Amino acid sequence: MNQAVVTERFTVSDRVRDAMAVSLRGCEELLPQDEWLKKLARSEATGTPLRIKLGLDPTAPDIHIGHTVVLNKMRQLQDLGHTVIFLIGDFTSMIGDPSGRNSTRPPLTSEQIQANADTYYRQASLVLDPARTEIRYNSEWSDPLGARGMIQLAAKYTVARMMERDDFHKRFTEGRSISVHEFLYPLMQGYDSVALRSDLELGGTDQKFNLLMGRHLQQEWGQEPQCILTMPLLEGLDGVEKMSKSKGNYIGVTEPANTLFAKVMSISDTLMWRWYTLLSFRSEAEIAALRAEVEGGRNPRDAKVALARELTSRFHGAAAADAAEQDFVNRSRGGLPEEMPELALAGAPLGIGALLKQAGLAPSTSEANRLIDGGGVRVDQSAVSDKGLKLAAGTYVVQVGKRKFARVTLS
């Protein structure tokens, strides 16, 4: 029988230890851990849920699964019974977060912010439980501050401390522009924690300075300071660079189910286990057991299929995941996907390079030729090796790589 440890007057039970393990799973830092343990113990003893905040500036309308790493952590804590606050930074978006930037970020209009926020929350709700999520906008308390309140807030922090921040320090030493309003961003994010009386704030590793600002300002206002939890940035499909649309190594949460499933199946066996830790809702014990089976001789493809099914189900539903798995199996056996784009082109006889470009299967004729040289082009399931091939009028299934298909009717 485990002996309970008592911190202050609250008992650290096995259930509290389990909650701590859930909190630490996959995280980069949890600061200070002893304070978070006390908060968890107090919450269990009093039956009072903790207030857990995630602030997101809706600077873009769509998210990829890399963005869902921190949302997954929110859902895990939500499932422990705590209050999750999805904070939309409609006010702070108008300032622009300077984190990790080498130049001033242009502010968004209120119309852009609202449109992005609506789409972002719909997508985030595929991870969070909407019925148990508190949605707030920081304009609720930021707008009423006014000029007087803003000046009083700015008096709570020094310029010297602000310049300790890496991106500000780097830009200053390189002679790059720093606008005065950018100093307001971490102050306003910190003030959000005061307004919400946050117990824990989550963010990416690049948000640590802003998260600590919340602790500082809560103390200035006489509140118990929040703890902070940072999550790592997810590596993309290449397993090297962080997931990014600009690098093309991402999976969008709104991508078709078949595409999402196939992309998950394309990751390396090594990267798969990191994705399990950061993206799966399976328990760590389940993941460890699965990994032991693979190390004991089970085909790692089975584990990857399970992960692909889980993620596809999350964003598209179980039926779509079933269909996506079957589609993937058909393709791996040389079959064709059940659905593919259909288009009509004129100009027969048409060169294969021009056809690939006009069908949107290659960005240029020269790239199409490179794909042919690499053996990545098929017409009606037959590999194309002749870059001078001309196709007569008719209907063809054209394939580029493993995932690009189109049914082209040429006239």
TrEMBL record:
PROSITE patterns: AA_TRNA_LIGASE_I, S4. Pfam families: S4, tRNA-synt_1b. Residues 350-411 form the RNA-binding S4 domain. ATP binds at K245. SUPFAM superfamilies: Alpha-L RNA-binding motif (SSF55174), Nucleotidylyl transferase (SSF52374). Keywords: Aminoacyl-tRNA synthetase, ATP-binding, Cytoplasm, Ligase, Nucleotide-binding, Protein biosynthesis, RNA-binding. The keyword Nucleotide-binding applies. A motif ('HIGH' region) lies at residues 58-67. A motif ('KMSKS' region) lies at residues 242-246. It comes from the Bacteria. The keyword Ligase applies. GO terms for molecular function: ATP binding; RNA binding; tyrosine-tRNA ligase activity. GO terms for biological process: tyrosyl-tRNA aminoacylation. Coiled coil: none annotated. It is found in: Cytoplasm. InterPro entries: aa-tRNA-synth_I_CS (IPR001412), aa-tRNA-synth_Ic (IPR002305), Rossmann-like_a/b/a_fold (IPR014729), S4_RNA-bd (IPR002942), S4_RNA-bd_sf (IPR036986), Tyr-tRNA-ligase (IPR002307), Tyr-tRNA-ligase_bac-type (IPR024088), Tyr-tRNA-ligase_bac_2 (IPR024108). It catalyses: tRNA(Tyr) + L-tyrosine + ATP = L-tyrosyl-tRNA(Tyr) + AMP + diphosphate + H(+). Its EC number is 6.1.1.1. CDD domains: S4 (cd00165), TyrRS_core (cd00805). GO terms for cellular component: cytosol. Catalyzes the attachment of tyrosine to tRNA(Tyr) in a two-step reaction: tyrosine is first activated by ATP to form Tyr-AMP and then transferred to the acceptor end of tRNA(Tyr). NCBIfam families: tyrS. Homodimer. Belongs to the class-I aminoacyl-tRNA synthetase family. TyrS type 2 subfamily. This is Tyrosine--tRNA ligase.
